[in-house]
Design brief:
With about 210 residues, this protein is mainly α. The protein contains 10 helices and no strands. The longest helix has 23 residues. The protein is globular.
Length: about 210
């Protein structure tokens, strides 16, 4: 169980989820898995098998797959550590508080914790990473879509959560990940994330919720 999976301690609701929303949730979960820790060989192999279409997101997925096919898990682990861990800190700080205020553990984290509590989300007992890290909020969004915390969230609730905890900063983070000095595989992860955040933001704007 990953640190982010530990956040989700609820059973997935049985309410029907349409195919498009399942695909959205799958992509949120996929990004969470790649950003939570260095991908194990099986995840790297599954990434290499992905096929995208001719949309901007599909082309980003295809590019990620091509890089994954020539990547080794040991090299990606070194890349991940340089980006997010490093000696003292990595090249990037993937937290909402940092992106929105310039400091860690600030008001964005407190606001997220309040909204987590209101939705039945809870950090696992052995998780020490602040909840406003990018992998956690990606996985939380997937959980809201799929109903891991009770009934699947309405589009209005998804829009509210995205607008407060993801939209204001995740696109900037993914752009930084694309351009980071140590990014190789993760440059393509950044491209996928950036394209997906743009689609999600546009979809919520058009939803009328």
């Amino acid at each position: 169980m990953t640190q982010h999976e530990a956040i989700m301690d609820q059973q997935t609701a049985t309410t029907a989820i349409d195919a498009e929303d399942r695909l959205r949730a799958d992509l949120y979960d996929f990004l969470a898995a790649l950003l939570a820790r260095p991908p194990a060989p099986d995840l790297l192999a599954r990434t290499a098998d992905l096929r995208g279409d001719d949309t901007a997101l599909g082309e980003a997925v295809s590019a990620l797959a091509r890089v994954a096919r020539v990547s080794k898990a040991s090299g990606v682990e070194r890349e991940f550590n340089a980006l997010f861990i490093g000696l003292g800190r990595g090249e990037l700080l993937p937290y909402a508080s940092y992106y929105l205020t310039g400091f860690l553990n600030e008001k964005p984290l407190a606001g997220l914790r309040r909204d987590m509590a209101a939705r039945g989300m809870q950090r696992g007992p052995n998780v020490y990473e602040p909840e406003d890290n990018i992998a956690s909020v990606m996985e939380m969004m997937a959980g809201l879509i799929l109903g891991r915390f009770g009934a699947p969230a309405s589009i209005a609730d998804q829009k509210a959560f995205f607008g407060k905890h993801i939209g204001p900063w995740a696109g900037h983070f993914f752009t930084d990940l694309e351009a980071a000095t140590h990014s190789v595989l993760y440059a393509s992860v950044g491209a996928v994330g950036r394209a997906f955040m743009e689609i999600e933001a546009q979809g919520f704007r058009m939803s009328g919720a």
